[in-house]
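Late entry, written up from scratch paper. The run itself happened at the end of the previous shift, but nothing got recorded in the book at the time, so transcribing now.
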Amino acid sequence: MHRKLRGTPSGRLPPCTAVILVPGLWLWRDPWLQWAAGCAGAIRAAGSQPVWFGYSRRVAWTAFLRPTGGTAAELVRRFLTLYDRVRARHGPPSVIAHSFGTYLVARALSDFEGARLRALILFGSIVSETFDWGTIVARGQVTPARMRNEVGAHAATVRLAAALRRFGYPYGESGVTGFQLDELSRSVNVRYTGPWLADSALARYCRGVWVPLLRPTHPPRRSVLTLRSLELSRT
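Output as recorded:
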């Protein structure tokens, strides 16, 4: 447990918003030591509260290898429980998810229509390229202008997960190809230009690129898409 994330920061942005950090699989090192600590510092410095959604290596691999099993379902429930606690204290949170964490978040949004996110950042995403973001947007769960799918980060790992589709696994390579279902989905894809995951420069990337999107006072980037244009694209 990383107690350093508990408590309310003095922050400069009232009211204090929260950002849930959702890691992927443990490969060699604790994800906290790889990327989350640096991002948490940048988020805290901007006046928001980072919240760590942690789980053990055993749980991660069990859920990944059996996505339809009880362990994966329990992880999704745990995320939604944390979401409820954070929302009650800080309002709708933002989420930064990596690798297997992107699958958990997308599944949670699909399963629970009541989940509303202030912003959503995915990197190293293994969510299917044809995931139906249009439905998520139509339900008011996330806004395309406050979504960002970093394309090209950790491509080898993403492709490895996507290769399991031949065995019936639900993973994809949206972290390499981007989301491709429709115009709305493609609008959230952004080429990743940041550092390697374990590089300390990731904190600077988070501070300079991600944090502005997460700020409640930051105007969302202009999107030419509306729900009406989405409906027209599907007819």
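DSSP finds ten helices and six strands in the chain.
(Scratch paper discarded after transcription.)
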